């Protein structure tokens, strides 16, 4: 509890500037590759030099990328000469490379040719998706007992910074306060659409009996292969909702429990996900971070003979919110009138007091006189929230300056992130599955569940294709999971988008359908909308936080192909989807270069209309104007001269992190060449280069 009203990014500035340093000297080369700029300076130690190198064309291998934020904890500790566990900086990533259970060195070497330290790769597990991951190590590494609200905000901002770059996130954390961090992140990360998994270990990773290897491996698999848009905690073969957990044991490997909610998933021979319990986004808004928490909160645990003076002192200013840790179903010592008076006085002063039970399992109710007396004194029932979740939620709610006191009290009783139980009255399970099962002589629960998994996605996709929102709602109320996928990994949202069904698309998004799920061709719904030029749906998906999944070079080739055809509609689709029009293909060509080669005047008029034209150079130093001049396309040449007067440098469009076009010198070209592992791609670059050389020579000779 402190004097400052809240923790903000400014509060953490000293931590960032004083303790975080980039451990590599290769930051400039990363900038030259076009992946980062000095304006987006690294705030964390990155121990993996080639973390964003694109090794191949998209489509050759189905991969996902996971960012691991290593904050500290037992998992990376070593014993000193006295046998005391201490953090070991700059060690974890190097050791993981030597563990075949956590890194497929052979795959990395074959796919990342020319990289000194390629990204880490999860070994093959039978899944169709290979998970690549890179580790960010915080400086200094923290024992979780030293974790503060400033670190919670720091973690959330790091996730925000790389949200569109990675498919999922894993946070390595000490176990002592892991539940607090998981609860806080669940509120700070608003409209979350990707998996964020916290994990750690009871024994260091380097010890033979460590539980860290299994915990890390499974956390990576959940973050990289499943879209569970929540902050979760993985420990001892169970994936738990983060804000439902508490540390149960300091000595057992089964250290965490979720007393009032079943696991989201369990890991055995098979991985079983209970999709009905997954908390899906419920608003049509982009992902964002609320970078602020109130520090003026605390937990007051009641005990027999607690005096009113102690309670009054605890509730005195500057406190603004208190979790009252009560007995049983929310009861307190009502015989002490001074105690109730102190609570009433604080509540009247605007202090939000939330009633949480000291019993791990159960629900706060006002069934007893002693519990009802607290409610009458202004105490808010906390339902079945854990103290960790209630404290984090209270800190989050109090930091919302735009909310009135009445709204803040209402929000504390509202289920925001799945932190408390809400009883939903839904329709009975559809009899369709049972009827089909009867015909097929399927009767056991397991067989019926398997049949449901196989049939329901196809039914949902069929309904979505017909734009029938009423039937989708019936299916939802019958328990159907609206983000389930068919044999081609297409979700109902993929189908609705491809058909241009705006109503079904909007309905599915309101019900939490994920905009980040990939089909068999690794296309998310936004990629599908762009492929069909559905502008209204593209705009809707972007508002909901969707972003293109295409790799930079693949995106450049797709846009260049549209420019070559003069396909303005496709270019407009890419623009609405947020594509970076400065992306270059393997020959260093942008849309302008290709449009100049193919004499597509309409494309240039479109680029100038939307201020997308950039006079970048290809691998031979040719700008689009140079290409138009060499090929004798005079109309394009004149248009460029008119629209780009001397001394004017067109602004770059697209990623704010890019301060210069990639591959503008020999080093950049060499890096691009090394990033390609297929001979056909190399041949394409060489043949394109040869063609440009011959064309330039002939034109100069003719002139």
Automatic annotation (TrEMBL):
Cell location: Target cell membrane
Domain L-asparaginase N-terminal: 65-277
Taxonomic superkingdom: Eukaryota
Positions of the Asparaginase/glutaminase C-terminal domain: 297-402
Record-level Gene Ontology MF annotations: asparaginase activity
PROSITE patterns: ANK_REP_REGION, ANK_REPEAT, ASN_GLN_ASE_2, ASN_GLN_ASE_3
InterPro entries: Ankyrin_rpt, Ankyrin_rpt-contain_sf, AsnA_fam, Asp/glu_Ase-like_sf, Asparaginase/glutaminase-like, Asparaginase/glutaminase_AS2, Asparaginase_C, L-asparaginase_C
Protein keywords: ANK repeat, Exocytosis, Hydrolase, Membrane, Neurotoxin, Presynaptic neurotoxin, Repeat, Target cell membrane, Target membrane, Toxin
Keyword Hydrolase assigned: yes
CDD domains reported in the protein's UniProt record: L-asparaginase_I
Active site: 74 (o-isoaspartyl threonine intermediate), 175
Family that this chain belongs to: In the N-terminal section; belongs to the asparaginase 1 family.
Entries under NCBIfam families matching the protein: asnASE_I
Name used for this protein in its record: asparaginase
């Amino acid at each position: 509890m402190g004097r400052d009203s809240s923790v903000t990014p400014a509060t953490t500035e000293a931590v960032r500037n004083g303790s975080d340093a980039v451990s590599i000297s290769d930051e400039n080369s990363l900038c030259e590759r076009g992946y980062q700029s000095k304006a987006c300076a690294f705030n964390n130690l990155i121990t993996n030099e080639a973390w964003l190198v694109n090794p191949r064309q998209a489509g050759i291998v189905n991969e996902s990328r996971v960012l691991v934020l290593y904050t500290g904890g037992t998992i990376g500790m070593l014993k000193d000469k006295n046998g005391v566990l201490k953090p070991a900086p700059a060690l974890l990533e190097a050791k993981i490379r030597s563990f075949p259970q956590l890194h497929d060195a052979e795959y990395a070497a074959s796919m990342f040719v020319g990289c000194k330290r390629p990204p880490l790769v999860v070994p093959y597990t039978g899944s169709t998706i290979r998970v690549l991951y890179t580790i960010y190590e915080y400086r200094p590494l923290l024992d979780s007992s030293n974790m503060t609200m400033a670190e919670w905000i720091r973690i959330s901002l790091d996730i925000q910074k790389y949200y569109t770059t990675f498919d999922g996130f894993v946070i390595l954390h000490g176990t002592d306060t892991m539940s607090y961090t998981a609860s806080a992140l669940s509120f700070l990360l608003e409209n979350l659409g990707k998996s964020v998994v916290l994990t750690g270990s009871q024994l260091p990773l380097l010890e033979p009996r460590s539980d860290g290897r299994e915990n890390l491996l499974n956390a990576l698999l959940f973050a990289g292969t499943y879209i569970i848009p929540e902050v979760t905690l993985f420990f001892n073969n169970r994936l738990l909702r983060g804000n439902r957990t508490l540390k149960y044991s300091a000595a057992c490997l089964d250290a965490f429990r979720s007393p009032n909610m079943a696991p989201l998933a369990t890991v055995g021979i098979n991985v079983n996900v209970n999709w009905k319990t997954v908390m899906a986004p419920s608003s049509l808004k982009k992902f964002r971070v609320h970078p602020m928490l109130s520090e003026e909160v605390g937990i007051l645990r009641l005990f027999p003979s607690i005096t009113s003076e102690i309670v009054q002192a605890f509730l005195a200013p500057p406190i603004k919110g208190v979790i009252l840790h009560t007995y049983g179903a929310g009861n307190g010592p009502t015989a002490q009138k001074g105690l109730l008076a102190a609570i009433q006085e604080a509540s009247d002063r605007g202090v939000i007091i939330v009633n949480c039970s000291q019993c791990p399992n159960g629900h706060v109710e006002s069934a007893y006189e002693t519990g009802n007396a607290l409610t009458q004194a202004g105490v808010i029932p906390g339902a079945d929230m854990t103290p960790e979740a209630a404290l984090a939620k209270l800190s989050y709610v109090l930091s919302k300056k735009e909310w009135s006191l009445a709204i803040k009290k209402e929000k504390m009783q509202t289920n925001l992130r799945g932190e408390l139980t809400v009883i939903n009255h839904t329709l009975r399970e559809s009899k369709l599955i049972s009827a089909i099962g009867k015909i097929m002589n399927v009767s056991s629960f397991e067989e019926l569940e398997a049949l449901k998994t196989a049939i329901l996605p196809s039914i949902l996709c069929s309904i979505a294709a017909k734009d029938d929102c009423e039937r989708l709602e019936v299916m939802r109320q019958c328990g159907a999971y609206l983000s389930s996928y068919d044999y081609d990994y297409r979700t109902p949202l993929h189908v609705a988008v491809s058909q241009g069904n705006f109503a079904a698309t909007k309905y599915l998004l309101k019900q939490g359908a994920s905009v980040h799920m990939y089909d068999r061709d690794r296309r998310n719904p936004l990629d599908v909308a762009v492929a069909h030029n559905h502008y209204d749906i593209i705009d809707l998906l972007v508002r909901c936080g969707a972003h293109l999944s295409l790799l930079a070079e693949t995106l450049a080739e797709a846009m260049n192909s549209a420019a070559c055809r003069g396909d303005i509609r496709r270019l407009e689709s890419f623009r609405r989807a947020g594509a970076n029009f400065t992306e270059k293909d393997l020959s260093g060509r942008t849309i302008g270069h290709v449009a100049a080669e193919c004499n597509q005047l309409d494309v240039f008029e479109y680029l100038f209309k939307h201020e997308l034209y950039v006079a970048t150079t290809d691998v031979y130093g040719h700008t689009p104007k140079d290409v138009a001049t060499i090929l004798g396309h005079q109309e394009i040449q004149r248009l460029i001269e008119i629209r780009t007067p001397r001394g004017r440098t067109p602004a770059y469009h697209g990623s704010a992190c890019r301060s210069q076009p990639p591959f503008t010198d020999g080093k950049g070209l060499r890096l691009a060449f090394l990033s390609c592992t297929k001979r056909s791609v190399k041949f394409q670059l060489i043949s394109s280069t040869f063609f440009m050389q011959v064309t330039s020579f002939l034109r100069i000779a003719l002139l």
